[in-house]
Amino acid sequence: MRNTFLAVLACASAITGVTAHPERHDHSKVHSPAIHARGTDKCARQIEHRRDAAFLKRRNALGKRSTSNANRFMYKELQNKTCTLAPDTIFGPYDVDGELHRHDVREGQDGVDLYLDLGLIDVETCEPLSDAWLTIWSCNATGTYSGYIGIDPDTVEAYDGWTTRSDGTTDDSTFLRGISKTNEAGIGEFLTIFPGYYSSRTTHIHVTVQSKVNGDDTSYSDAATQHVGQLFFPEDLINSVYQLAPYHAHLATLNRTLNSEDSLYPTANSDGNDAIIATELLGQTLADGLIGYITIGVNRSAAAIATTGEQVNVQGAIPTVSLSASAQAAANTIDIAQGYRPNGMRV
Length: 347
Ligand SMILES: *[C@@H]1O[C@H](CO)[C@@H](O)[C@H](O)[C@H]1NC(C)=O
Ligand SMILES: *[C@@H]1O[C@H](CO)[C@@H](O)[C@H](O)[C@H]1NC(C)=O
Ligand SMILES: *[C@@H]1O[C@H](CO)[C@@H](O)[C@H](O)[C@H]1NC(C)=O
Ligand SMILES: *[C@@H]1O[C@H](CO)[C@@H](O)[C@H](O)[C@H]1NC(C)=O
Description:
This protein is of the alpha+beta class.
């Protein structure tokens, strides 16, 4: 079992309930509590400091917005900041290898903007982990993943008229996926939207970490993955966001799975672990957007996580897409206009 990952901030809440879901995984492979208790609290102060600094830095960079509530967190429970190892989770059926390197992954997807800063910390030294590559992916506001737009998020079956390719994908769309590099402070920055939800899973964002990449070659076949995880949100925030368009319409066709009913949330948020993103409002209302921050601990010494085999997904391999130079160039243009480099790092 790998112990590459750890996670985060506040104290874990009591979570119960496990339900079946379409993402294949094996709890015996994703849960090793004996090891995870180790080497954790020693990083707590660094994590707290880094989170506060990340929020402030992001606000300053976004300057045009009100900073009146810069120090006010929406959720009181986030005042408890422990640094704990969290178990690895799974790639799940919707990962794609070969994504665009970029900061802004929105591609026009409608929803609440989420400025998501992910801080990596080396669990052996409690130092920031710089020059590591982060990959994120999530569904859109009504539950659809890019590359899988032919899949009905309510049933997880192909829509009439759509066929699934041999690698599981249905198309070549790329929204709400991207890869970005961590800076010298160990922080990677994304601009995405608050995710929607799909059948049997609570709201989440997937993340992987590759800390030993040669140059810019982030393909899973060439560069070891040291962490694969899922990040969650507080239940009350999810409910508030889903009162807004375009999220709200989905409730008419699919009741959402609560955090407490999710199959992976308890694993990622038990034994003192906490994989819940700390958030605060960017402006005065939710519709103005959110800033999110979480610290992820990575063990650079741990063995690479397998990216093939039946633990990965039903196909046994992560689909690989080849993106055109023009798609990367278009992403670069958007990022450069926002003050980011083509590798997703802030200028
Ligand atoms: C925060 O930690 C303190 C001390 O361990 C505890 O009493 C309190 O209940 C915790 N608060 C939350 C929200 O978890
Ligand atoms: C999510 O993506 C699907 C597939 O492209 C699209 O039909 C749907 O309108 C999108 N949801 C929103 C809220 O735009
Ligand atoms: C959601 O759950 C409620 C209560 O069980 C039920 O009445 C309603 O039909 C469900 N909605 C959908 C879209 O399944
Ligand atoms: C990191 O991984 C190595 C190799 O598996 C292991 O020996 C070490 O104890 C791990 N460190 C932590 C802090 O878990």
